Amino acid sequence: MEQLGSCMIQYASNLLSSEQLVLRADRDRGDNPMVEVYSLPSEFKLLLKILGDVNVETMQSNPNAGAKSRSDFYFAYGHLDALINIIEPFIKTISVKFDDSPRITPDPTGMEHSDGIPLGYIYNQQSTNFVATCEVNYSERFCATTTSKLYIEPELKRGQKLHFGITMSENISKSTDNSNYFKVYIEYKDVKRLLHSVKNAKVVLEN
User: Are strands 128-138 and 34-40 parallel, antiparallel or unpaired?
Assistant: First the structure.
């Protein structure tokens, strides 16, 4: 495993409905979440590890009224250059067949529930998705892991940001790690799509 760099992230959250728990870090409340980016050459994967002021909280919302088991990550507009500067040089070092097929995803997130608030204005034509693995660790309590579609889209609501979202399954095991973190594993073949989505979001959000 090789660390490629690190950058700031605005917000990270996991809703673990079955346990009525939330794992969260949020710069708006004074937290300092960071993303460490690693290459895993033996697995042909890129790892985004989010840590720093990641806290376990009791879920305040009612899971029967729309709260879901999901993970969401937001990069503020000002964080995108640093992420690009990590991923772009890395792409030039790997030789794989990248997945460049068109993948438009209209309204991938929608609302939390029918009486809820829209999650933000989404540029549907700029959305994309690919299969990724998300691991969420609640220190010494639970570890939740999902392999599913990771949706990526620029949003405008309470600021300019790039959203990563993935619906989590209830694949929960006992945690043996005493730290809180999120891990997102992305296959090498999808890293070019990831870079394009970040660059595209930067252009969209500054207009």
Answer: unpaired
Answer for the pair 44, 2: CB distance below 8 angstroms, yes or no. Answer: no
Q: How many domains does the chain have?
A: 1
The model's pTM is: 0.86
Q: Which is nearest to 133 in space by CA: 22, 202, 43, 19?
A: 43
In the structure, how many helices (H) and strands (E) does the chain have?
A: 2, 13
Is 4 in a helix, a strand, or coil? strand
Radius of gyration of the chain (CA): 16
pLDDT in tens, 111-164: 333 443 343 444 445 578 889 999 999 998 899 999 999 988 888 766 788 999
- Pairwise CA distance, residues 155 & 141, whole Å: 33
Q: Are 72 and 151 in contact (CB under 8 A)?
A: no
CA 99/CA 190 separation, integer angstroms:
6
| CA atoms of 44 and 97, how far apart (whole Å) | 12
DSSP assignment letter at 112: S
- The answer to whether 44 and 188 are in contact (CB under 8 A) is yes
Domain that holds residue 114: 2-205
Which residue type occupies 61? S
Are 186 and 157 within 8 A, CB to CB? no
